């Protein structure tokens, strides 16, 4: 578990404001460094065989303007693809999501570091009316992205694939991740009582107390 917590601490988190085609949006933002060259990180983001090892199995027309679908139900369109530095997709989830296009987008930017490493930035923008946010705050999506970037770190280091389900249900991982997103929420001006309630709701959603 120590390496998992170390990876959590390696990321900088922020919550901000942005826009998507459907209107004003809030953003959850993750920035970190990977000890791997930029071409290797880009390949991990776009090669279906490697993508399934840290995110999920993916199908579709994987080119600019094409569409994709993950095994978990997330799907969308490839909006920008500028190897090896920028990938942007629409990001919809759920059986009714297609009724609200343009409400959620994910963008990843890469930059080469001075030591042959890679600076990684992920920004997930979603409309302000997104129903999970009032309850869970940025942890609604942030905990899931923490898990995926942990798996990406393991892949880039040449290690074994992460057991997503086991880590996601780890009370310690969830507690640390939810608390970190609570700190980002506070820094963005969130009301302390709302932030505390959102952190607790996120923790209980991902790792509920045994009954």
Automatic annotation (TrEMBL):
Coiled-coil regions listed: none
Source superkingdom: Bacteria
Signal sequence annotation: none
InterPro entries linked to this entry: ASHA1/2-like_C, START-like_dom_sf
Chain ranges of the Activator of Hsp90 ATPase homologue 1/2-like C-terminal domain: 35-126
SUPFAM superfamilies (UniProt xref): Bet v1-like
Family: Belongs to the AHA1 family.
Name the UniProt record assigns to this protein: SRPBCC domain-containing protein
Native species: Nonomuraea salmonea
